[in-house]
User: Which sequence fits this backbone?
């Protein structure tokens, strides 16, 4: 049996997000990799996103990347807006799409 530390963040449920079925895990992993690949490998934004996906808090991320918690929050919101524009949100209501 493998070591628990050898699993990717998506394979190990953290902070109450639950477990994925193998099919869902494959789909989510592909989506996450597509999103991560929109950032340069050594970019600060990618590092923030990877830490966020690993379950770190904004405070923990701020300490790791050397920014304030507020700066990390602003970058996360900015990335969210950019990713939403790039990939869209199929669950978005027409009113939200206009905002």
Assistant:
């Amino acid at each position: 049996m493998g070591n628990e530390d050898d699993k990717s963040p998506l394979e190990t449920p953290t902070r109450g997000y639950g477990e994925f079925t193998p099919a869902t895990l494959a789909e989510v992993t592909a989506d996450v990799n597509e999103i991560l690949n929109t950032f340069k490998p050594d970019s600060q934004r990618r590092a923030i996103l990877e830490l966020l996906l690993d379950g770190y808090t904004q405070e923990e991320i701020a300490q790791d990347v050397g920014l304030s918690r507020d700066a990390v929050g602003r970058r996360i919101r900015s990335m969210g807006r950019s990713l939403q524009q790039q990939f869209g949100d199929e669950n978005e209501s027409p009113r939200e799409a206009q905002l």
Remarks:
- The chain is about 60% helix and 0% strand.
